[in-house]
Amino acid sequence: MGITLQGVNYTYQLGTPFEGRALFDINLEIKDGSYTAFIGHTGSGKSTIMQLLNGLHIPTEGTVKVDDIVIEPNAKNKDIKSVRQKVGLVFQFPE
């Protein structure tokens, strides 16, 4: 299973006075069988990227591709359930 992010942007609360850009122009390829770690300061976008990879968020712009399933803005994204079966998350504080 390969994962690709192309030109991905994500803005929280888009169109509101609380709008905040979390990710800007992210391009990433994770090849099948490889391991990837996201390391960074608080607020650097690590959790946002993981939520995009799992389909919990839809990118504001750009494309997230998990295997042959494409997640993009303004699309029906019918295969989100399939993405979640392929990409699992373990939350830091799972309460």
Features:
2 helices; about 15% helix; about 30% strand; globular; about 100 residues; four-stranded antiparallel sheet; single chain
What does this structure look like?
With 95 residues, this protein is an alpha+beta fold. It is built from two helices and four strands, in the order E-E-H-E-E-H. It has helices at 46-53, 80-86, and strands at residues 3-12, 20-30, 61-66, 69-71. A four-stranded antiparallel beta sheet has the order 2-1-3-4, covered by helices on one side. The longest helix has 8 residues, at 46-53.
Short overview:
With 95 residues, the protein is of the alpha+beta class. It has two helices and four strands, in the order ββαββα.
In terms of quaternary structure, what is this? single chain
For the CA atoms, what is the radius of gyration?
13 Å
Structural class: alpha+beta
Strand-and-helix sequence, N→C?
A: EEHEEH
SSE inventory with pairings:
Elements: E1 3-12, E2 20-30, H1 46-53, E3 61-66, E4 69-71, H2 80-86
Antiparallel strand pairs: 1-2, 1-3, 3-4
